[in-house]
Amino acid sequence: VLVVDDGSTDETVAIAEALGAIVVRHATNRGYGGALQTIFSTARGMGVEELVIIDADGQHDPGEILRLLSELRAGKDAVFPAAGSASAFGAYGRRAIEAVYQSDVSTGSDILTLVHDHHLKVAGAEREGAQTREPRYRGRRIAVVVPAYNEEELIGEVLDGIPDYVAKVYAVNDGSSDRTGEIIEDYARRDPRVVPIHHSPNRGPGAAVISGYSRALSDGIDVVATMDGDGQMDPQYLSKFLDPIIDGKCDFTLGNRLGSPEYRGRMSKWRFFGNAMLTFLTKIASGYWSMMDPQNGYTAISRRALESIDFKDMYPRYGYLNDRLVRLNIHGFRIQNIAHPAKYGNEKSSIKYGRYIVRVSNLLLRTFLRRLKMKYVILSFHPLVLFYLFGSILSAIGVVGGAITLWEKLVWGYPVLFVHGALSMLAFMMGVMFLSFAMLFDMVAERQGYGWY
Question: Residue 403, Cβ neighbours under 10 Å: how many?
Answer without folding.
Answer: 11
